[in-house]
Design a protein that fits this description.
The complex is a heterodimer of chains A (270) and B (289).
Chain A: H1 19-37, H2 39-42, H3 60-67, H4 69-103, H5 106-116, H6 123-137, H7 143-168, H8 172-179, H9 184-213, H10 216-221, H11 229-239, H12 244-269
Chain B: H1 2-19, H2 22-42, H3 54-61, H4 63-96, H5 99-113, H6 117-128, H7 133-141, H8 154-179, H9 182-190, H10 195-223, H11 227-232, H12 240-251, H13 254-286
Helix pairs in contact in B: 2-13, 3-4, 3-13, 4-8, 4-10, 5-8, 6-8, 8-10, 9-10, 10-13, 12-13
The chains are: A mainly alpha (270), B mainly alpha (289).
Chain lengths: 270, 289
């Protein structure tokens, strides 16, 4: 009981008087995590209704996923799109963040704002706008079109991560290298890059995830044999509660959690 | 002479650095500026193909548009309010916990933040269905007797949206609370304020810019919601984004859909301007960060 009567903050409140806050916070944290995690055991239920705890455990929904070409094809498409988005968005975003951060010009603030707009503009506008324009050019239902759209969504995230990485990095080191005769490009690649490499990997992971999880643009820009996983899931959700989606959801949770924990681990290295 | 050389070298360097943003600018032009600009011009074309305001006039005349806007504001407003009510205590808790433990508790905010929105919407659909876990639990506990329809209505939509938006509230709130100088609370306490007085009179007012920033972020993002109301609303909760799709699917009317999109965009930017004022206020009050 010693801890309960200990002072808990800069005011004289004790932990005992604060139990309600700890309880409330625990309930809210539970509500945040529970609905996501409960899908995992449910996906191993044998029943159509995915009851919890499952009366009978089975992997039938995983088999269903694995044996349906529609799901597998969509997964491959999503992985491809996410991979190419990552390859494009990471260098584009890093270059832009570096250029804007180092130059620090006034115009740069407007450019930064313009490049951030994809985070704020309602995605439906980007979706129908690109659908219309791509339709005119004839690149609807193609992977390159979708990759380009996802790249624009991922660039602001890469830029935010890279800008904060550059903020903690001492740019004078680059100046030293250059005063010793290295070119700007050489100074960047041999001095700066090794020190921000973990942040680059982190932003690449987030770019990948941004594309892989994106729904609305995918609904409009992907189709036929090139439908993404999220598009197929969304279509299936509108009809009835397909338990196969619980299995797919579990796999997606594992993917995003792994990437996030990986990013968190790398964040401590830089 | 030397000065001139230096100056031109500096200008060259500025140009080079600015050039690094060109790939990003090209892609934003292709994906945002041209398509959205095109929609903007489409919204001013009438059925005959000439300039007209008929798409905007329709929005004022037809009641169905009014209903969609009302629903959108309603849902966004309620979601924001509930996010404040749930987010404030959690952010406050996180700001009071010892630094070493914050990381562990923060995972409960970041895990859902980085989990697919579609997956979380699906999770709620499963939990809220008639034979779902919540109905089963409530019947077993004797809270209600027969299964209640929890999903496919406004309440289901709200539950899903609050769950999805909560991290967007907690993160800026936590950041704002972190910046509050701990000594102000100590000073209040030394001057004789009770913990409750110090909380309400010192801490809460100092955290208000964070509340404003978080609320505006949540509200703005809610305005454009599509997936969650489409899945959890069961056709009863029609928000602007869904109406835009419906117009395209049913009538193939690009003018009307674009006009609705333009109104959504303008509304978003108005709230964004408001937000930028609060965010500036934020940095003025707490110095540069």
């Amino acid at each position: 009981m010693n801890w309960l009567s200990k002072q808990a903050s800069d005011t004289q409140i004790t932990h005992g008087q604060r139990m309600w806050l700890y309880f409330l916070a625990a309930v809210i944290m539970f509500l945040l995590v529970f609905p996501t995690l409960i899908v995992i055991p449910m996906s191993f239920s044998d029943s159509q209704y995915l009851e919890f705890p499952p009366e009978k455990w089975s992997i039938r929904w995983y088999e269903e996923y694995w044996e349906t070409p529609r799901w597998i094809n969509a997964t491959i498409t999503s992985l491809q799109v996410a991979f190419f988005t990552m390859l494009l968005a990471t260098p584009i975003g890093t270059m832009a963040a570096y250029g804007l951060f180092v130059s620090g010009s006034k115009l740069g603030r407007y450019v930064f704002f313009l490049l951030m707009t994809p985070m704020i503009i309602p995605v439906i506008l980007i979706a129908i706008g690109t659908f219309y324009v791509f339709g005119k050019v004839g690149v609807v239902n193609s992977i390159p079109g979708l990759v380009l759209a996802h790249t624009v969504l991922a660039v602001p995230i890469v830029m935010i991560i890279m800008t904060s990485a550059l903020r903690t990095y001492d740019l004078n080191q680059e100046l030293v290298a250059r005063s010793l005769g290295a070119s700007r490009i050489r100074a960047f690649f041999s001095i700066t890059l090794p020190q921000i490499k973990f942040s680059i990997i982190i932003s690449a992971l987030f770019a990948f995830l941004t594309s892989f999880d994106e729904v609305i643009i995918s609904i409009f820009l992907s189709g036929g044999g090139n439908s993404t996983l999220t598009k197929q899931m969304f279509n299936a959700l509108r009809d009835y509660i397909d338990p196969t989606i619980a299995a797919i959801s579990t796999l997606m949770i594992i993917l995003s959690t792994t990437l996030m924990l990986g990013a968190q681990y790398l964040g401590k290295q830089d | 002479m030397n000065e001139k050389l230096l100056k031109s070298a500096e200008r060259k360097e500025q140009l080079l650095l600015t050039a690094l943003t060109i790939p990003a600018l090209i892609s934003v032009t292709l994906i945002i500026v041209i398509p959205v600009g095109w929609l903007f011009s489409l919204s001013f074309l009438g059925k005959s193909g000439d300039f007209s305001l008929e798409n905007y006039q329709k929005m004022i005349v037809y009641k169905s548009y009014f209903r969609v806007f009302k629903t959108t504001f309603n849902v966004s407003f309620l979601t924001t309010i509930f996010c404040i009510l749930l987010g404030y205590p959690l952010a406050y808790f996180l700001s009071q916990v010892p630094k070493k433990l914050v990381g562990i508790f923060m995972i409960t905010v970041l895990l859902p933040f980085w989990t697919s929105l579609l997956v979380r919407t699906y999770a709620w659909l499963v939990l809220l269905q008639k034979k779902g876990m919540i109905n089963n639990f409530a019947i077993d506990m004797g809270i209600w007797e027969t299964p209640i329809k929890l999903a496919h209505n406004l309440n289901g939509t709200l539950v899903g949206m609050i769950h999805i938006m909560l991290p967007f509230m907690v993160l800026p709130l936590y950041a704002a609370m972190q910046r509050i100088d701990r000594q102000t609370m100590q000073a209040a306490s030394n001057l004789g304020a009770s913990p409750i007085q110090a909380f309400w009179q010192i801490f809460v007012p100092l955290s208000l810019p964070g509340v404003a920033a978080g609320s505006l972020i949540v509200f703005i993002l809610c305005l454009g919601f599509y997936v969650t109301p489409a899945v959890l609303g069961g056709g009863k909760v029609i928000m602007v984004s869904m109406q835009i799709t419906a117009i395209l699917e049913d009538q193939f009317n690009w003018g009307a859909a674009s006009a609705l999109g333009v109104v959504l965009l303008v509304t978003t930017f108005i709230f964004l301007l408001l937000a930028s004022r609060f965010l500036k206020l934020d940095s003025i009050m707490f110095g540069k960060h």
